[in-house]
Task: inverse folding
């Protein structure tokens, strides 16, 4: 992960280098956030994924910026390791 940013109380933004975490790893990690977040993502011309997680009004849990940043980073590393040949 290159950058994590708190855009508002319920909106978390991440910039991720696509040469470190490919689209497959990113999709697997983001899957688990779809129940609580609206997910927006884009790959820019600099080969960076720009991800925005916006908390759904129906979410029944409180998410802190620190928790989401830590968890998302762990998930990216986890899925990258699972995808790597042993």
Result:
């Amino acid at each position: 992960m290159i950058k994590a940013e708190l855009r508002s109380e319920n909106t978390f933004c991440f910039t991720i280098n696509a040469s470190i975490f490919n689209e497959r790893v990113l999709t697997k990690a983001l899957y688990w956030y779809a129940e609580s977040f609206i997910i927006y993502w884009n790959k820019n011309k600099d080969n960076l994924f720009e991800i925005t997680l916006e908390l759904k009004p129906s979410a029944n849990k409180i998410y802190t910026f620190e928790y989401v940043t830590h968890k998302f980073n762990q998930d990216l590393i986890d899925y990258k390791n699972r995808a790597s040949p042993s």
